Amino acid sequence: MPAATSPRKIEAEAHPAASPRNVVLCVAVSLDGYIARPDGAADWIIMDPELDLQAYAKAFDVIVAGRKTLPPPKTEGKAKGGASMGDIAYYAFSRTVRPGKHGGVEYVNQAPPEFIHQLKTRPGKDIWLFGGGELTREFLKKDLIDRMDLGIMPVLLGEGIPLFPRGFPQRNFTLVKFQAYKSGVVMASYARKSAKPPEKR
Amino acid sequence: MNVSVFIGMSVDGFIARRNGDLDFLPEGGGEPHGYDEFIASVDALVIGRKTFETVLSFPNWPYGKRRVVVLSSRSLDFSHVRGGFVEQMAGPPAEIVSKLAASGVQHVYVDGGITIQRFLSAGLVQRLIITRVPVLIGDGIPLFGVLPRDIWLRHVATQHYPSGLVKTEYRVVVDS
Question: Taking the model in full, what pTM does it have?
Fold first, then answer.
């Protein structure tokens, strides 16, 4: 991967009309804020047939997650700088795993701000932050989350792996959209609160 | 007898900052989001000692003439309560619920993080009305705590408001 040298940066700034790539945190979460049980179990997640994840995924060409979050995806299709799931490049952040492609996953050990900055200087679709909690906290510390699309499950687990572990500064959002489904799942979508009016979806 | 929870929290699940501040709530509590209608349907409130102390610091007693039960095993000083009806009880949630039902109370409003957690844990809450404020505050007093088992909920209704508040009402599913 080329270093973030000046020519690339200038190129990006010369094309301000390029549509911005948003980092979107999209996860299923219990009403009491967990993304998994303590043992990692996700049995409580309702796969609502009304929620078309395939259609949703079309807005993304990159998924980023922490090392512990996802099993390696099936590798089909070409790898465009990342292990691919069809047209989505999948990157796992890890400080311990050697960077590069192993077991169907592209591991990166760059600090998130650097990595995201590099992604954003190239045109592309949105960037899906799939969790886990620790990576989400890192992103929030550096104010890297542009939007949150939270699938809130109608359950209280009482314990588990938190989506928002403590240790990041306050971040303000505006509500963009919400929808309640027959399954009891509530999808709430929030955009980072900024001086500019939020972009309409 | 029904027991309800009606409370606001940040998206990361806090009902107040660590020091009790509620500054992240919209100004003045936000636009009306059904609280007045809700409180009108309540016969009695059950709150814990911490909530009682917080409420004492408000300029006016916020519960009007509604019967307020403060749960504490320590003795409480009610001398500064002006224009309200307040009493103390001690004992596990189930006992409190029995006593109130026996005195004719039909709708109890449970408030305060610890008290809500105790009543939820004991399986005594029927209705949960949660209003989510569009902010992540990073640390504070959590609404939810440990539970003896999963609590499944049935979604009743969700509404959103101009300030970005999202209010969702759930019924607690009772295991048969």
Answer: 0.87
